[in-house]
Amino acid sequence: MPGAGSPERPGPDASRSGSPPAAPPRSDILVRPSGPLRGEVEIGGAKNSILKLLAATTLAEGHFTLRRVPRISDVDTMIELLESFGCRLRYGGDDVLHIDVPQQLSPHASYDLVSRMRASIAVLGPLLARCGEAMVALPGGDDFGSRPIDMHLAALERLGVDIDLSHGYVHARASTLKGEEVSLAWPSVGATENIMMVATAAEGRTVIDNAAREPEIADLAAFLNRMGAEVLGAGSPTITINGGGPLRSVDHTPVSDRIETAVYLAAVGIAGGEITLRGAQPGHLRMLCDKLGEMNLRTSTIRGGLWAMSPHRLRATEIVTLPYPGVATDYQPLLVAMLSLADGVGLVTENVFANRFRYVGELIRMGADIRVEGRCAIVRGKERLSGAPVRATDIRAGAALVIAGLGAEGETVVRDTRHIRRGHEDLVGKLRSLGADISWVPAG
Ligand code: EPU
User: Fold this and answer.
1) Is 119 in the pocket of ligand 1 (CB under 6 A)?
2) pLDDT for 13-46, tens place per residue?
3) Measuring CA to CA, how many Å separate 172 from each of 36, 161, 319?
């Protein structure tokens, strides 16, 4: 992958990966006004798919291969979690991960690992399916809200799982899992995935009504089906799982990361220029590309990826986040950063997470004119922002602050970059390859 060998790239454990020495983990990112951007970058496999696919490997004994795995710290956390169950994992190439799943697993996910990454809750379903029991730490709240798992637990109970919440852990046990109809009050991505995975081991048919429709859900279904499961309708609001059949290990290449793709679209939107995103899957980004079109950014599907050009100043628009196929909540900080520099007044309504505007204070420190009222942000665009030291408050907000720095006078120094490294592979190297003035600097 381009930039993968960049010597300044902080990355996962080099002894495991065989990568060049990693930069100090506490580095900040320094960005100066940049543009126009030109060139191409390679988009990696979707973080939010790979984490669940890794969890799903525990469903069967044997040797799995996952390709196009980005070197990000959330993947490292999931690797540690699987190792704690007794699996063995190693990189066989820059982005190929081999997973050996033993016959016996220890179905215990510790607080130390789950508290590092909420997506760890994805192991609950597969551990239950494989071992008949699981003890997984409650993930608790995070950077943008309380993020309960009530829908996961209620669905598991319907399938015959006994759940006990005590001492900060979910203790789940099932002597028999039985297929059932499960209706979700909201199309939760994580709940849909946990139910799909546990239902592969349930007797009979499970139907998930109001299921999440994200491309990563369809990817998980493809993975499970390749393993021998029968999962029908993924990508639609009704998913049917005919459970109980034997499962086997597989080799799989996940969908590409639509959120990583959005980062580079936002970058070219703010800095101007013309870029190609190799490996991007434009079919997964239709609503976003329509919105970006309203904002003056031109995009076009090309063979093997997506082309984008920003010939003019961005124009403000109205944005409403929704579950897929709507505009994803994960794009929201990027879009707010773009609107901060657009011509006119933009209105952004966040419908998925109650508290996902926490980073806005950091953009305001950079001179942005944003007023947050409940779930809405009113953004009055400026010609230029003003570089400042800012803190990444979560994975996506961190990337948005970096991108905002491309359109800010002077120097922007983004701190707490561990959040960025959780979900964005080689952000600095890839932006630099497009001509951005950006580098890692020692933490201030
Ligand atoms: N919710 C509940 N109860 C539940 C489950 C969810 O109330 O049992 C609520 C949540 O609090 C939230 C809404 O439902 O308000 C949607 O949550 P969902 O379960 O869909 O999200 P998730 O599975 O926790 C995944 C992604 C997020 C992404 C959301 C929405 C992963 C690892 N995470 O989270 O991605 O924002 O779906 O699309 O897949 C990120 O990558 O940075 C990230 C946060």
Assistant:
1) yes
2) 333 444 434 555 679 999 999 989 999 999 999 9
3) 54, 6, 40
